[in-house]
Amino acid sequence: MGPIGVFGGTFDPIHYGHLRTAFELLQALELDQMRFIPCGDPPHRATPMAPAGERLAMVRAAIEGQTGFVLDERELRRGGPSYTVDTLASLREDFADASLCLVIGMDAFLGLPKWHEWREILQLAHIVVAHRPGWRAPDMGALGELLAERRTAHVRDLHETRAGAVYVYAVTQLEISSTEVRALIRAGRDPRFLMPDPVRQYILESGCYAAKEEDLQHAK
Ligand code: ATP
Questions:
Q1: Residues 114-143, mean pLDDT to the nearest whole number
Q2: Which CATH superfamily is domain 4-175 in?
Q3: Which residue is closest in CA terms to ligand 1's atom 7?
Q4: What is the mean predicted confidence (pLDDT) over 131-152?
Q5: CA-wise closest residue to 38 among 6, 4, 3
Q6: Of all protein residues, whose CA lies closest to atom 14 belonging to ligand 1?
Q7: Is the CB of 178 under 6 A from ligand 1?
Q8: By three-state DSSP, how is residue 120 classified?
Q9: How far is the CA of 34 from the centre of ligand 1 (A)?
Q10: What H or E segment, with its residue span, contains residue 216?
């Protein structure tokens, strides 16, 4: 079995920035599969966010028919906020011998030393940093040390070991964010071409990001 990609997010909603990144990594790293893992509803966050069931339905609609893309509901089933290290431990129980590749964006990587039990993460998985072309990797501090020790330029290392390497990969940058997509829909505009059409249909039919009455009155 090839490595398993682990792609967590709020997916509120899922858009082509997520999907293109996942697809490029699936191909470039020769992954067996890419698991999309929507996070639970954080109790401390305010609503304009779609509830878990709707975010799940949108991810399901987005990835349908794409070989290798898998919806993984474990964080939602567990409920509440999940630490990445716990999600990886749970995946490790299911896939004892597989290589796990945790995908994180450049911004998240820069904050890695603040994550709960961050060093444990590399005991459980490789880290794949999806970065912008031209971005310079940190060469100082904890991350500088980590890269000096763990960085590999070889995809085969992700296949031959189960965890512990850091692989940095430039993905095509699509400047789309869920925050902007939600704002656009609330403003009454059409999100067409920012996401697969079934996701757009779901959003329009469920009204999950619809403009609230007070916004429309404000816009008049
Ligand atoms: P929000 O705007 O609500 O913060 P988001 O668009 O960043 O949402 P998330 O669900 O928080 O989406 O992101 C999940 C993962 O996808 C993160 O690792 C994030 O870095 C990555 N990601 C989000 N948008 C893009 C994009 N346009 N291109 C590449 N990766 C992305």
A1: 90
A2: HUPs (3.40.50.620)
A3: 177
A4: 88
A5: 6
A6: 9
A7: yes
A8: helix
A9: 15
A10: helix 213-219
Contact present, 186 and 212 (Cβ < 8 Å): yes
- For 18, the token pair is 């997520």
pLDDT band at 133 (very low <50, low <70, confident <90, very high): low
Nearest-atom index, ligand 1, CA of 10: 10
Choice from 14, 18, 174 to test ligand 1 binding pocket (greatest atom count within 8 A of CB): 18
Q: What is the pLDDT of residues 16-36, one digit of tens each?
A: 999 999 999 999 999 999 999
**Domain ranges in the chain?**
4-175
d(CA 22, CA 19): 5
Most distant CA atoms of the chain, gap in Å: 60
Is residue 52 within 8 A of residue 40, CB to CB? The reply is: yes
Q: To 5 degrees, how large is the angle CA 217–CA 189–CA 44?
A: 75
pLDDT for the residue 79: 75
pTM over cut 0.85: yes
Does the pLDDT of residue 195 top 50, yes or no? yes
Tokens (6 digits) for 77: 């089933």
68 Cα to the center of ligand 1, angstroms: 20
- Rounded to whole angstroms, the Cα distance separating 173 from 16 reads 10
Residue nearest to atom 23 of ligand 1 (CA): 18
Place of tokens 């509901």: 73
Tell me the C-alpha distance between 10 and 214, whole Å: 26
Per-residue pLDDT at 122 exceeds 80: yes
